[in-house]
Amino acid sequence: MSASPADLRAQRIASEPLHTVGQETRFFRGSAASVRDVWNHRELLGLLVRRELKARYKDSSLGIVWSLIRPLAQLLIYYFAIGQILGAARAIPSFALFVFVGLTVWTLFTEIIGNGSTAIVTNSGLVKKVYLPREIFPLSAVGGALFNFAVQLLILILATIVIGEIPWHVQLLYAPLAIAVLVVFGTAVALLLSALNVYLRDIQHLVEVSLIVLFWASPIVYSYSFVHNELQGNWIEQLYLLNPVTLVVLGMQKAFWVAGSAQGPNVNWPADLDLRLVLALAVSVLLLWFGQRVFSRLQGNFAQEL
Predict the structure, then answer these.
(1) pLDDT tens digits for range 117-144
(2) Is 111 helix (H, G, I), strand (E, B) or coil?
(3) Residue-wise DSSP of 141-202
(4) What is the pLDDT of residues 15-57, one digit of tens each?
């Protein structure tokens, strides 16, 4: 008696080798496997980045120009309110360029944290239906933020050319180091928050409040000189300099703010800024590893929670 089609199908399935689906969840193992898993899905990651950019500018007449309107609007507000009315422009040379450098960095950070922390919840449909490394969702938010940052950075470079303050000096090397710190640190925080936000939806609201506080805790619309002159190097100033975003903003100002990097009047820089950035990068790499391992432990119940 010949076997039925159902029996033959069951035999074929039984002969197939078993493959482990998912990631290694033990805390001190599995990092390399997780990286390989993301790398094997790099084409999907690219598609998600393009999807995010297309969705952001869908049915928009201005398209990518909108990525410039917000920071330019902020620039005008802060330049007028803080620079002209409060008189900060008199104490800070090339105040408009100074503010735009800080806003360019800050926009990158807020997009990574804001979009990355909600990436799993936003893509809940895919998370519940198919298996793929869930890290690619916050990473796609990072990719979209980097694209917008590249556009704003190009405008920043053009602005330095137009006003005749081209940053053609050795301090320009601070820029890639500062950007690396911001991307690694932001990605680490976004990974961790995106996983926690699945279980505790208040996280996304906490992020919004924290970003407001962090903005004013970084020298974006005021000079670090004000902080230094007020605190005179005490422990509060050292605590202030432990903020990676503060170091990144200072590094980018050192690179692109020619009037300040030339040690103009009333301008101070923290001692060993380059060493501080290197240490911040090292700590950010460790934080990225820690965030990914926590993410890996928590992702097992994402589908049920969503």
Answers:
(1) 988 888 888 888 777 888 899 999 999 8
(2) helix
(3) HHHHHHHHHHHHHHHHHHHHHHTT----SGGGGHHHHHHHHHHHHHHHHHHHHHHHHHH-TH
(4) 666 555 555 556 556 678 888 888 888 888 888 888 877 777 6
> Which among 197, 193, 258, 249 has a CA at the least distance from the CA of 222?
249
pTM for the whole thing? 0.85
Residues 6+ apart with CB under 8 A from 35: none
What lies within 8 Å, CB to CB, of 268 at 6+ separation is: 224, 225, 228, 229
- Give the phi and the psi of residue 266 in degrees, each rounded to 5: 65, 25
Can you tell me the distance from the alpha carbon of 145 to that of 104, in angstroms, rounded to the nearest whole number?
A: 11
How does pLDDT run across 65-115, given as a tens digit for each residue? 777 777 777 777 877 777 777 776 777 888 888 888 998 999 999 999 999
* H or E stretch at 125: helix 124-129
Radius of gyration of the chain (CA): 23
Domain ranges of the chain: 40-305
Cβ-contact 81, 69 below 8 angstroms: no
Q: Determine the Cα–Cα distance for residues 76 and 189; give it in Å rounded to an integer.
A: 30
